[in-house]
Amino acid sequence: MHNRQPEAQFASDAVGDGEYRERHQTSEKPGPHPLCALPLRASHGGRGRGEVEPLFTSSSSDGDPRAVNPHVEGPGTGSSGRARLRTRSGSQYLYRKTFATHHLTQSESVDREVQGVSTERCQNDAVCRHLIGSVDAAFTGPVSWPPPETRLAGGNNMDAKNRVSLWTGRVGLVVLAFLLLTSAALAQTSKEPIKIGVLNELTGPLAVNGSEVNEGIKLYWQDEMANQVAGRPVRLIVEDSEGKPDVGLTKARKLVERDGAHLILGPVSSAVAAAFRDYLHERKVPTIITQATANQLTAERASPFVFRSAMSSYQQEAAGGWYVSAKLGYKRIAVVALDYVAGHEQADGFVKTFMEGGGQSVEKVLMPLGAIDVAPYITRIHSKASELDAVVGILWGPSAPQWMKAWDEYGLKGKLPLLGLGELVNETYLRQVGDAAIGIVSWLSYSPALDTPENKRFVQVFKKKYGKDPVYNNHLGYLAAKAGGEALRAVNGNVEDQARYLEALRKVRFEAPGGAFRFDDKQNAVIPTYIRRVEPVGGKLQNSVIDAVLDVDQFWKPPKR
Questions:
Q1: Where do runs of H (alpha helix) occur along 102-159?
Q2: pLDDT tens for each residue of 41-56
Q3: Residues 358 and 293 placed together within one structural domain of the fold
Q4: Is the overall model pTM greater than 0.70, yes or no?
Q5: Same domain, 365 and 421
Q6: Measured between alpha carbons, how far is 237 from 259 in angstroms, rounded to an integer?
Q7: Distance from C-alpha of 217 to C-alpha of 343, rounded to nearest angstrom
Q8: DSSP three-state, residue 366
Q9: Taking the CB of residue 195, how many other CB atoms lie within 10 A of it?
Q10: Longest CA pairwise span in the chain (Å)
């Protein structure tokens, strides 16, 4: 029977409160333990007294369920230094700790929670290894439970008050144990890499677009973020959709099911995006569309898991259509567009606002996606040149530079103004076409010639990495990567907490190289539209900004006339 409280024994080399050092000794090799964290509760008060009591118990290697039974002895009030904790397995923990006490009783109020962890038990358990770092203080002595002061003089039974106290404490300690281990598991998870699937077109008619988008993504993660966020490594897993819906869906499944991607960036093709949208929605995978412009993706088929950091088809052309009629004064035009979903939608968006801005007539000409032989379509335009004020090229991919070259070769340059969506005069194509592109007016959400501090910085770091100036598609990739990265920073890298991550993504706002960026209520980008003109500057061609329409969203309406 324990009928007295032994005196506490403290080491003499005291250190400051809260500072500690662990030493682990054992008389036998302890086996693995599912609950190796052994929390204690300690207090010290103004009367020079303190207490230690177990917060929960767990089975030790010898099968005794009372694994932690602290018992502290010391020289008296005012002593400070080190204290030890011994378990039935023979493990000892030694911590440096300032502590003033005389006897330890259950009567003192608890003001500190501490825990000791065996490094040997935890050497193969990452969760337990994490817990070691959170120990604050621990004490040792002969293994004995219940504490002597709770026992009645006639035996080992406690009185009713102490029984209730102990029972209540044990219930609370089980809950605390669960919370501690859950927290540790999350902390361990946070050390795992965040996997970002990059699914753009690297072969086929949209290969130039996809490759350029990927350059922007890599610039952000590799150079600006050093492949990490909030202490977690970030791994980019790049796949090629080939611009084919079935291939895109297969690659999306691979990224999610085999690679475990937390986030998907891509694609360029609207057909590919439409193909994998339902799958990613059902699997609840956060996705940021990098360029695919199909209106429905953030309208009728909007998903809480799908965002778009680029413009929709209508949005991309809305300000341009209005500007051509209302500001440039052209009333009769021909629109040359690509014959697939995105091409049709963009042509329709342009025509709608062109007419609302004062336009009178539109001739529409459609070409196959990826067409290189543009002669039949140029000939058709040439035959109607006298009936037109201007021609608008809503073109991208290999058709764009071919159209500009043919425009010059067929003698239309200088006779009939050529305008277009900014992708027509992508800086990559300007280097191929040369002077034939001079004077073309276009509209787009970016130009490397923008004179802003953020864009100058972007151009500088991009040129350092790739040896060339950035283009629109590079900017799109950068936007998608930065939007995803800003949200990850907001949740301290905890992408596993999907609800918080999605909410953070919805709230993302930053100053991009192309201007102020945010998402609207349907999770589509709200960004400016710049009116540009191709000009020779400093020995090269550039899209000089001549005007801007700010805060253009996917439902933008022209100003009333």
A1: 119-122, 126-132
A2: 333 344 333 333 333 3
A3: no
A4: no
A5: yes
A6: 8
A7: 25
A8: strand
A9: 19
A10: 116
